[in-house]
Prior knowledge:
single chain; six-stranded mixed β-sheet; Peptidoglycan synthesis regulatory factor (PBP3), Domain 2; alpha+beta; 12 helices
Amino acid sequence: MHMFRRKHFYSSLIIVLCLVTIFGGAAAAGGALYASRNTSFDPASIFDLDDDLGDTPENVTTLIANDISFGEFDTSKMPEIDAEIYLLVESRSGVVICSKNADERLYPASITKIMTGILAIELGDPEQMMTASVAAVRDIGQDGGNIGIVAGESMRLDNLLDAMLVRSANETANIIAENLFDTRQEFIDLMNLRARQLNATSTQFTNTTGYHEESHYSTAADIARITRYAMRNREFRKYVIKPSILLNPTQQHPAWDRMANTNTLLRNESLTLMTITGVKTGFTTPSGYCIVASAEDQSGMELISIVFGVRGEGGGERRFTMALDLLKYGFNHFKTNTFVNEGEKVDTVSVRNGMSKDTVDAVSDGTIRLFLPIDNDLWNVSRVEYVRSEVTAPVSQGEVLGYIEYRLNGKLAGKVDVIAAEGIADRKGNISAPAPTPTNILLGRNITNNGGSSRSQASSSDQDGTSSNSGSTGNDSSDSADADPAGFPGTLIRSSLFQISVLVILTLAVIISSFRTIVSAMRARNRNRYYGTRSPSRSKTIKNYRRRSKWY
């Protein structure tokens, strides 16, 4: 028996370690699955801090420098902007056209709801029914905007988003947060985590609505980063472009009045240079009247203007004028220029040992567009091209043969690979497998082409400083959306499936190890019985066993 213990000590130890690993892994997997159901959670389990999700679009393989500024260009034709803070930025590239105090701390007021809205769209189901708590309808700040939702009233998420993003209803932001997570604070933690991911490091959120708190702050530069990210989402764009909304009836509200968007620029029919595409207004006494406005021209170029700290008589209307003046300045003096088109021939490359051809066309693997002043004399763009002069067959279609770079004022502005336009076999008929389909490379760090349109509204005095009533027309369709590419809960589930797979493997290892241990024990007992009848002592039994057995 003593021999058995010594012989199988390590096998037993392995079994114990495997069991500990199994139960520990099961607990981890269960915790991940539990978090994926939006109960108690760690925000980092949903967002990977190493991923710059706000700046990396799916169809861009080469990032463009985002620190290019046009401050050295003539800005004498800029309009007079009587605001404490403003910023004008090209949406897709992040290029700053002009700014004032863009890094100065400000109180974001209802502009906060841009972050609340994009997270709700990413994490929620538009048809999900959400119920208002007493705390949600009461905790809206002094004179906070609301549409009169009462405790116990249930509404769909898409209707709540309409009321929040179009009419700036504070209670809807609280209702959304409390229904997506166990507590509102968990949602706020997620807002702060997402801000850090978007490099909005000077931003801190302490509530979902934007009512004033000293510890709730941001900057115009950070708001631009958050807005650029949000405007990449098709569903978000559909909400913030609606000039008015009409909510579905509920048990407490058999009928709602039509509610107009607090962003009156969406109802400006005199605009010919651009089309307003969003996004949000705000007001508190410390922040003053503020607005984030976006617009596109006929070429698809989109600009975002941010105006904060408009005070004094008529400030609510003057903010719209200032935002519009900034947009007009941008569209009148800047444009997006295409330098290389996808599939455009760049060069001809010699092919050694080719079966049917001795050359192959080298073409651009994507499109490079640069945001530049309309006046070409102000450009300082250089092109760097590298293409191999010769390759050896076989050559696969899409094989990288070089690259093209464009630099603006010495800084990298765009880069695209140069690839083989077709495959060429060698003299034995061998040909490499086709390379992946080329992807577009566009100026800026993001072009997911999330177009779309949407609008919404509410009643009574609101935090945005606009008058209460409704009365506007517009598109009321609440198109329910393509799935958001983020898919955060799916990440958790995939992680859990991996852990479960590991558990299965460890379980099989334990079963096999246990079986071998039992078989060895049975053999050892039988041998001990056999040799024990022929040995005068235990030591002789072991000695005889070792001498006779082939196992030693």
